[in-house]
């Protein structure tokens, strides 16, 4: 039920902005993939663990109830002033920071933690009749004037994230040798 309403919202956003939609979830079934194609969504074939680059154009990322590692990887992939091209609807970064110990954040959401002072988070008020569909969801933007406040050293610290096993976070399967 939750995914149906989240999908309905995505359809509304697609219509509102008249834009292409690329979709991926490692749990998609063949039927779900076929349904997405009927709605003119492009299916991404590979699990790149959220490491999508904006390629210097404004990109809207819709990550409802996704693990914090996906948001973290997305930030890493666009680390630098190109974050200004990212608009992210995901679990509240502020809530992630408030509800996890610093040790956990360093291991699974380091980029979320580092960028938080330089972003604007707008909480999405959930007035929907089913509270759990969009609870803790926020819009995250990265204004260029805030991003330009930090030093080049801040941006040069860009080590690719590696995570300790987590049941919510599905890693890319390695090819058989």
Entry summary:
The protein is α/β, with parallel strands linked by helices and 177 residues long.
Give the key terms.
2 domains, globular, 177 residues, alpha/beta, two-stranded parallel ribbon, four-stranded mixed sheet
What does this 3D model show about the protein?
The protein has helices at 2-17, 30-38, 68-77, 93-99, 102-108, 110-115, 144-147, 152-156; strands at residues 22-23, 42-43, 59-63, 86-91, 120-123, 137-141. With 177 residues, it is α/β, with parallel strands linked by helices. It has two domains: 1-45, no CATH class; 48-170, no CATH class. The strands form two sheets. The chain has a four-stranded mixed beta sheet with strand order 3-4-6-5. The chain starts with a helix and ends in a 21-residue tail after the last helix. Residues 3-141 form the SRR1-like domain.
